[in-house]
Automatic annotation (TrEMBL):
It comes from the Bacteria. Residues 7-100 form the Thoeris protein ThsB TIR-like domain. Coiled coil: none annotated. Keywords: Plasmid. Gene3D superfamilies: Hypothetical protein MTH538 (3.40.50.9200). This is TIR domain-containing protein.
Length: 159
């Protein structure tokens, strides 16, 4: 199976170490990680620069995977990325990552589903992007074993 190019959307400060674990699985072709220094430079350049960075990095991606940590649903740029993904016709899915062990902070509390802030429609019919909640006992392997299929299903949902 070919690796599908995806864009990961997440709260950088809280969840970057958990996100890195998912990127390192190698199950799909995710965007390259951005360093904290690079992200801070983009943020300091203002809203237009952030939107351009998102546009440039989301270009040619077939799916947006929202990695849901404790505060992800409150992050304005995550909300922007979700909206853009849907408007651009990309696959869209969410994965709760609170049960992945961060080397610095351990696990965290489960965050709210950020998709609940939207009403997604396809041909006039309400569509609900899937959100997965891997079990605490085996979150890493559950994500690794299912990620590619989840991405394929999210892309198929948009066709």
């Amino acid at each position: 199976m070919a690796k599908v190019p995806v864009f990961y959307s997440f709260h950088f400060n809280n969840d970057v170490m958990r996100v890195q674990q998912i990127r390192n699985m190698g199950m799909i072709d995710g965007n390259e990680p951005v360093s904290k220094n690079d992200w801070e430079t983009v943020k300091k350049s203002g809203s237009a620069a952030i939107e351009k960075w998102i546009d440039d990095n989301m270009k040619y991606k077939r799916c947006v995977v929202v990695l849901i940590g404790t505060d992800t649903n409150e992050r304005p740029w995550v909300i922007h990325e979700i909206k853009k993904a849907w408007e651009d016709g990309r696959g869209l899915l969410g994965i709760h990552i609170h049960n992945l062990n961060c080397p610095n902070n351990g696990t965290c509390s489960k965050g709210k589903n950020p998709f609940h802030q939207f009403t997604f429609k396809k041909n006039g019919v309400v569509v609900v992007p899937p959100v997965y909640d891997p079990p605490a006992s085996n979150a890493y392997n559950h994500i690794k074993n299912n990620l590619a299929a989840w991405v394929d299903a999210a892309i198929a949902l948009r066709k």
